[in-house]
Structure formats: C-alpha cells, structure tokens
C-alpha cells in the first residue's frame, strides 16, 4: 500500500501543453489510494477537459471562484480547499504560474488556493528549455523552495517547441515516486523496526480440537498499522485471525501455536528497535497431542497440561537496545499485578486492560487501557476505539525516541 493511501491530494493544473499528462497523474493518485480534488486555471482547460479529470477523480473540477448557475451562484471556497488537502501538487507549473506563486499575484483559483494551503506543496515545472534556465525562472525556483515548497525537477527530452532539452514536466509515474519517497523519508519512525505479536494461539489437543482464546487480533493489527503509517518497518507475528493487512511496511508472519510464535519472534528480536507483545498467548498446552481424533467414550476426560515458553519473559531476559512493551489483561488487583509483571519481565511499558471496564476486552471495537511505565508512573486513558489506542501506544514509542 502506498504512503499516499488515504491522503487528500489537491492537484492544481496550469495552462501548458503538459496539462494533457494530468489525466494519467490523477489516475495514478487514485490507484495509490489517494482522494483527489482537481482545480484548474482557465487557460489549462484548452489542453485537458474538466470532464475528463472529473471522471477520473470522481469529484467535480473547479476552475473559477464561483459557478454561475442559472438559479444561483455557488462560491468555490479556496480556503476550504486549502485546508482540506494533505498535500498540494501544481503540475504543470508554467513560468507564468511560478511567477504568480512567488509574487502572490492572486488572479485565479489555483493561486488563491495555493496561498491558502497549510499543507506541503509540490510543483512540477514545465516550459521550454531556455525559459527553464532563464535567471528569472531560476530565481523563482529558489524563492519557492525558500517558502518551503518542493520542486519536482523537469526532465530532459523532446519539447513542444521542437527543441530537445530540460523543461519537460516529469512523467506522472516519476511525480508519484518523487512524492512517495519524499513523504517516506520524513516519517518520524523511518528507519525503526518494530516487532508486534497479535491474535490468539491454538494449542492442539488432537488433529481436530485445540485450546484457544477469544482474541480477535485487532489490537495488534491496529498497532501495526499505526506504526507503519509513521514509517516503521513492522514485523507482525500473528496467530490465527480473520484479519488482513496490506501495507508495504508490514511483513506478516502467520503462526498457530505458542511455540510457533516463540520461534518466529526470536528469529527477529535481536535486531529490532521495539517489541510490542499484544498477542494473547496460551500459558498452557496439552502435554501430549493425540495423533488421531479422540473419540467421545468416557464420561470424564482429563487433559494434562504443561507450561508454554513465556515469550515476553524471554524478550526481557535478552533485551539490549529494545524498547519493550507488554500487555496485561487482568480481572482483579490490576495495578499491583501489572507492576509485578513490569519487574518480572523487564518491561519499559505495560498496557493494562481490565475486564471490569465496560467496552474493553476481547472481540470489541473499543478498548480502555492504563499505561504504566518502568518507573510505575500510572496514566489511565479514556475509552477509545482500538485504532485510537493503537495511536496512543505508538506515540509512547515516538516519545521514547524523541521523534
């Protein structure tokens, strides 16, 4: 999944021949999962039609400050457009548009929206080669970059004038790649690797039956998504769940038993920066597993159990540089039991769940947690969606690394 997925992209199109490429650019933004709103200068409509771009973006296209309909005029609010956007792209950015951007010459909707935008702004110049290297253009590039904008350099090739050289607007694929790379490199957890466990484990009794629990895995999956959204490389080791994730930053490793999870985690643990043990791992497993299905015969049936290997405890024993976060699901003496777990398992932070709290626990869309750090600082949180709780947990990671 692209880092553009879910982003609100405002595409400003100015009047140059390269505007024909914006149909492909819109399509690629949509393919990456972005929401696209197109605004155009009046001149750009001579090169590409609003109908084409509206069809591709699935949104109306705006090119003036108001729509003069037969019954009433409707204002196209450039301020709202600028605030809506997570990023703005001006492509093609002609010499005329660049000059207006620098000097604040606000005579069309694209420039008015640019001046109102609070988001990062990328611009892709497009003009003939002599215009591209002219001192006034170079000066405008410098000024726009000093304003905090990002230039997507023009490419070299055949130009509309018949000449060949630098000045071609970057190809749509290269514009997308440039923006994705730029966003990825600025994500606060870029370069960090986080190991996350999720879901239940199933401990086999025979080929048909198992001992398990009610964990859906949602909390762990939401933590993985939150971490990946901020650029972390995530290794998600998950027991059996119905959940799926599609993100280029998340590697999913499916396991079944507690031993499977233990082995998978320890293949990666030494090299990660953070480990978050959100899985509901079985504490016990059958001492022997029947090779055939056990028949229903006797009135009573006894299964002898043995302890499983404690994954979180093993993490604490081997901890070096890792920031280690554990979970505790308690039904009584919650704080005392959580503090004991921090000490016993050498944790930096524990996320305490209580089944006494309404809306918390297994198979719920919400969770209510209390954070307790290794210094026993207690921070109770409000009932929130599991996605919001996941963000809170990852914010603790950010605070640890001061990013």
Automatic annotation (TrEMBL):
Binding site for CTP: 283, 293, 327, 341, 345
A Pfam cross-reference name: DFP
Domain DNA/pantothenate metabolism flavoprotein C-terminal: 189-398
Phosphopantothenate--cysteine ligase: annotated segments: 194-403
The protein's required cofactors: Mg(2+); FMN
Pathway per the UniProt entry: Cofactor biosynthesis; coenzyme A biosynthesis; CoA from (R)-pantothenate: step 2/5; Cofactor biosynthesis; coenzyme A biosynthesis; CoA from (R)-pantothenate: step 3/5
Keyword Magnesium tagged: yes
Keywords assigned: Decarboxylase, Flavoprotein, FMN, Ligase, Lyase, Magnesium, Metal-binding, Multifunctional enzyme
A GO MF label: phosphopantothenate--cysteine ligase activity
Gene3D superfamilies tied to this protein: CoaB-like, Flavin prenyltransferase-like
Domain Flavoprotein, residue spans: 7-179
Catalysed transformations (reactions): (R)-4'-phosphopantothenate + L-cysteine + CTP = N-[(R)-4-phosphopantothenoyl]-L-cysteine + CMP + diphosphate + H(+); N-[(R)-4-phosphopantothenoyl]-L-cysteine + H(+) = (R)-4'-phosphopantetheine + CO2
Cofactor: binding comment: Binds 1 FMN per subunit.
Enzyme Commission code: 4.1.1.36, 6.3.2.5
Statement: the UniProt record of this protein carries the keyword Metal-binding: yes
Region described as Phosphopantothenoylcysteine decarboxylase: 1-193
HAMAP family per record: CoaBC
PANTHER family tied to this protein: HOMO-OLIGOMERIC FLAVIN CONTAINING CYS DECARBOXYLASE FAMILY (PTHR14359), PHOSPHOPANTOTHENOYLCYSTEINE DECARBOXYLASE (PTHR14359:SF6)
Function: Catalyzes two steps in the biosynthesis of coenzyme A. In the first step cysteine is conjugated to 4'-phosphopantothenate to form 4-phosphopantothenoylcysteine, in the latter compound is decarboxylated to form 4'-phosphopantotheine. Catalyzes two sequential steps in the biosynthesis of coenzyme A. In the first step cysteine is conjugated to 4'-phosphopantothenate to form 4-phosphopantothenoylcysteine. In the second step the latter compound is decarboxylated to form 4'-phosphopantotheine.
Family according to the record: In the N-terminal section; belongs to the HFCD (homo-oligomeric flavin containing Cys decarboxylase) superfamily. In the C-terminal section; belongs to the PPC synthetase family.
Name recorded for this polypeptide: Coenzyme A biosynthesis bifunctional protein CoaBC
Taxonomic placement: Bacteria, Pseudomonadati, Bacteroidota, Flavobacteriia, Flavobacteriales
